[in-house]
Design brief:
The complex is a heterodimer of chains A (about 375) and B (about 110).
Chain A: E1 13-14, E2 18-23, E3 29-34, E4 45-50, E5 56-61, E6 76-81, E7 87-92, E8 136-143, H1 146-161, E9 165-171, H2 177-188, E10 194-200, H3 205-211, E11 217-221, H4 230-240, E12 247-251, E13 268-274, H5 281-284, H6 286-291, E14 294-298, H7 310-320, E15 325-328, H8 337-378
Parallel strand pairs in A: 9-12, 9-13, 10-11, 10-12, 13-14, 14-15
Antiparallel strand pairs in A: 1-11, 2-3, 4-5, 5-6, 6-7
Helix pairs in contact in A: 1-4
Chain B: H1 2-20, E1 26-34, H2 41-51, E2 61-67, E3 70-73, E4 78-81, E5 97-101, E6 105-112
Parallel strand pairs in B: 1-2
Antiparallel strand pairs in B: 1-6, 3-4, 3-5
Helix pairs in contact in B: 1-2
Classes of the chains: A alpha/beta (about 375), B alpha+beta (about 110).
Chain lengths: ~375, ~110
């Protein structure tokens, strides 16, 4: 992980965003992207430096304003780990330019600091008594994915406000998600505005295929990442700005494992399984089939040429998720597509109704408040 | 390899808490991982070592507490234990099961200096 901005190595790219680079002292290069024109405050921006003697220190600082990376004279905190394992922390301010070239010239602290510099004195008894352990337990009790879930909640709220019905399409690579999407968009475009977020490790090929249909699409390249997360989708949403009452299709990275764990803020996950894969996939990758609301059994036009036991596949799928709806389809011949399209349109209708309801509720609230103000004025 | 991403989230939570408490070092991290969750403990341990390098939690002891999978069997109308999703009820063999526990992934607590 890039410790500068928290991005992964081989980094996420979202089309249209500007890319920049951090070079760490050990030569590792991290790239990350951001939009221009908006504030570019790097909160909780942490650096690590390795000194020639092998000691490592870490410091955090805040970038302010434009991309110039000027340091505000804000509290600039350092932590140094010395060769003897002790760590200390101190703060200072940098003035002026602070280029991210990796050629940081920080105070180098010699080993052999006086010991009083090394502790906060915040131990269990706030004591420094020799031999008394400074260790203490801190209870956290937080879900590991709480941060992703917070981003997902934000996305969900934004999509709800706009009455956008959002589907997260997941499958293994090659199950036919993109072809299915293209056919779906072609069939729906007259009645429902559709836009797409495309997740792939590399290339914009899929987004290009979607854009060829005329629907707006944003490609998110996850680099070495194996799934989309809610923060990536949030950034893509900023750029895509789906229309009120539209349908948003998110095509996740082809992977039946990791995307199961990451809520993106969608209404439902839809898993696509093609008959060219094994019928036992639902049992082999139960988490994904358990997380899905609907399973599309795709490429059924190929069944005559395959040894694929549909009944067994459906039984396995129901075993993992008794509540999941299952639809056999062929994106190529169009078989079963009508039911899929109706399912989507029903979702769009519900999302629009939900939005209308909340708009009505807001209007009623405004009327109430206005009446209240009027009453107060009369008093 | 989403264990890597999970570990990054763990480190974020741990580092944030440790800093707030003025810690200089994280000695141990205790996680609660359900048997039905999306996590492979061995992969998690490997990723934890990699991700915590050069952080406050470098070298911290990782303790993983297993939480057994439990479900409600509709047929038996009773709680039952299951080892993985897709398993049937150990009593009646039915797959009409509603998972009730064992899918959690939580940071429980940390030990800091």
């Amino acid at each position: 992980m890039c410790t500068t901005c928290g991005c992964g190595q081989g980094e996420t790219r979202i089309e249209g965003e500007h890319e920049h680079e951090h070079v760490m002292p050990d030569g590792t290069v991290y790239r990350h992207v951001h939009t221009h024109g908006s504030d570019h405050a790097h909160e909780a921006h942490t650096h690590f430096h390795r000194h020639a003697d092998g000691t490592v220190h870490e410091h955090a600082h805040v970038h302010d304003g434009e991309h110039a990376h000027d340091h505000p004279a804000a509290a600039h905190e350092h932590e140094h780990r010395h060769a003897d394992g002790t760590v200390h922390s101190h703060g200072h301010a940098h003035d002026g330019e602070h280029g991210h070239s990796g050629a940081h010239d920080h105070h180098h602290h010699e080993n052999g600091h006086a010991h009083e510099d090394l502790h906060y004195g915040l131990g269990a008894a706030r004591a420094h008594a020799p031999g008394m352990s400074q260790s203490r337990m801190v209870e956290i009790e937080r879900d590991i994915l709480s941060q992703n879930d917070a981003y997902a909640a934000r996305n969900r709220e934004l999509l709800r406000e706009r009455g956008v019905f959002t589907v997260n399409l997941v499958s293994s690579p090659g199950a036919g998600k993109t072809t299915l999407l293209v056919k779906t968009i072609d069939a729906l475009r007259q009645s429902v505005p559709v836009c797409v977020i495309e997740g792939d490790q590399q290339t914009t090929m899929d987004a290009d295929r979607i854009r060829a249909t005329g629907a707006p699409a944003i490609q998110v390249n996850t680099g070495k990442g194996c799934h989309l997360d809610a923060a990536m989708v949030g950034r893509a949403l900023d750029r895509l700005a789906p229309a009120d009452g539209s349908l948003l299709m998110i095509e996740n990275v082809g992977n039946l494992v990791c995307p199961a764990a990451f809520d993106l803020g969608e209404a439902y996950k839809v898993v696509v399984l093609s008959v060219t894969e094994g019928e036992d996939k639902p049992l082999k990758y139960p988490d994904m089939f358990h997380a899905a609301k609907l399973m599309l059994l795709n490429k059924i036009d190929l069944l005559p040429y395959l040894q694929f036991d549909v009944d067994r596949c459906l039984a396995y799928a129901r075993r993992v998720n008794p509540d999941m709806a299952i639809l056999p389809v062929s994106a190529t011949t169009g078989e079963g597509m009508q039911t899929w399209l109706e399912w989507l349109v029903q979702g769009v209708r519900e999302a629009r109704a939900d939005r209308a309801e909340s708009v009505d509720a807001l209007r009623r609230r405004v009327t109430e408040l206005e009446a209240q103000i009027a009453r107060l004025k009369d008093c | 390899m989403h264990e890597m991403a999970l570990c990054e989230s763990v480190l974020q939570i741990v580092a944030e808490t440790a800093r707030r408490h003025g810690a200089v070092r994280v000695k141990a991290v205790r996680l609660e991982i359900g048997q039905l969750s999306h996590v492979e403990p061995d992969a998690l341990r490997f990723a934890f070592d990699v991700v915590t390098r050069h952080s406050l939690a470098q070298g911290a002891r990782l303790e993983i507490e297993d939480v057994a999978g439990t479900a409600w069997c509709m047929q038996c109308a009773a709680p039952v234990a299951i080892a993985r999703r897709g398993d049937g009820c150990p009593a009646c063999g039915s797959y009409q099961l509603q998972v009730t526990g064992g899918d959690e992934m939580r940071v429980k607590d940390i030990e800091i200096d």
